[in-house]
Amino acid sequence: MLSPKEAESRAADLVERARKAGADAADALYVADSSTGVQVRLGALEDVERSEGEEIGLRLFVGRRSASVSSSDLSDEALRALVERAAAMAREAPEDPYAGLAPEDRLMRGDGPDVDGDDGRDPLPTELKQRALEIEDAARSVAGITNSGGASVSAGRSVIALATSHGFCRGYSTSGYSGSASVIAGEGAQMERDYAQHSTRHYADLDAPDAIGRLAGERAVARLNPAKLASGALPVVFDPRIGSSLVGHLIGAITGAAIARKTSFLLGKEDEAIFAEGILIRDDPHRPRGLRSKPFDGEGLPTAATDLVAGGRVTSWLLDSASARQLGRAPTGHATRGVGGSPGASATNVHMAAGTIRVDDLIGDIAQGVYVTELIGQGVNMVTGDYSRGASGFLIENGKIGPAVSEITIAGTLLDMFRRLVPADDLEFRRAVNVPTLRIDGMFVAGA
């Protein structure tokens, strides 16, 4: 795999080829990935996968006309044909008044922050296999576990480089590791499945195998013998592993494209109180070893920590250059992109600040409610904010977690849910989007 400096050279060379072919402006994104994954099941090796690849994408501008092309063949002949094809496509494309590179005066200067995203490790497949076996052994050792969907461990590395005709040229590398297990408890029609998973940038930060496996087993056993639940308006408490999806809906609603196209339920609500006053949601692209940390965005702008919500109010939209021009604003350093197509916008490492209430106290006054640990389906309308999803989890009875429940539906509107949301004090940084345990009163719950 190329080093970041070598990758920068590849991207810069393609931009230079585009300029020589008559492009008024161009940028190139180089991405290389390598990964090794090991899957075991019932104590035996089931699969070993190794993949390596590299790809480069070119975005070429002729005036306000543009085209994007990509190739996994990086030979000289292939790149020459790539540039010729992009130039021909751009000349025939319709004009876009908002198209163009990021403003030159806003590009990142210097090397940017070190986010400690690559530990340089390359574990052998034998080491990954042993770790996967230990994860599954721990899961299967939990009383009540009757079968296994398997355990897996993976290790990978990526190199990313971006070059633009404005003079920006930077690259960086990241490593990534993951361990998971999925097991089954019970027998016959009473079987239940659950899982546990952990992903990190550094191999040393992965949870111990027995911790991952034991958690998967305990979760599956806890789901046995689900109780019935009558329909009605109830408090719903979201486990942190799925509560993050609520913040994901917020992020989708404040992207520039959604606002510019008028397809967001938050349209016109910038600076309005949509959460309780104490709610803070922050995007931090410089978090050391963060799963989405990066020194610059998909257009070469510097990244920086941003409060997406402060005092319960949305502070800004997430804007790439095109959506910023369309809205008459400046880009915010949140551009994201792949090797094909134009940039969009999104957040990086996001967290909702912890509240001041202990989890036991958060649920302590709930006579009857639901603690949700799994969401099913995609029943969210991002234009209206209507929310309806299948769910499973546990009953809350007289302030205590009770028996499992499954095949229920929880529904509401995202604006109402945001306004009623109350966070507990148990925030942990384990995912790309992190939240504490969340309580929302008055959601409609339909029992099975």
Search tags:
19 strands, 9 helices, single chain, alpha+beta, 448 residues, globular, six-stranded antiparallel beta sheet
Task: Describe the model.
This protein is α+β, with helices and mostly antiparallel strands and 448 residues long. It has helices at residues 4-20, 76-92, 125-140, 209-222, 240-253, 256-260, 321-327, 359-364, 414-420; strands at 25-41, 44-62, 65-71, 145-164, 169-185, 192-200, 232-238, 281-283, 306-310, 313-314, 335-336, 344-345, 350-352, 368-376, 386-397, 400-413, 422-423, 433-434, 438-446. The strands form four sheets. A six-stranded antiparallel sheet has the order 3-2-1-4-5-6. Strands 7-14-15-16-19 form a five-stranded mixed β-barrel.
Q: How are the SSEs ordered, and which strands pair?
A:
Blueprint: H1 4-20, E1 25-41, E2 44-62, E3 65-71, H2 76-92, H3 125-140, E4 145-164, E5 169-185, E6 192-200, H4 209-222, E7 232-238, H5 240-253, H6 256-260, E8 281-283, E9 306-310, E10 313-314, H7 321-327, E11 335-336, E12 344-345, E13 350-352, H8 359-364, E14 368-376, E15 386-397, E16 400-413, H9 414-420, E17 422-423, E18 433-434, E19 438-446
Parallel strand pairs: 7-14, 13-18
Antiparallel strand pairs: 1-2, 1-4, 2-3, 4-5, 5-6, 7-19, 8-9, 8-13, 9-10, 11-12, 14-15, 15-16, 16-19, 17-19
Helix pairs in contact: 3-4
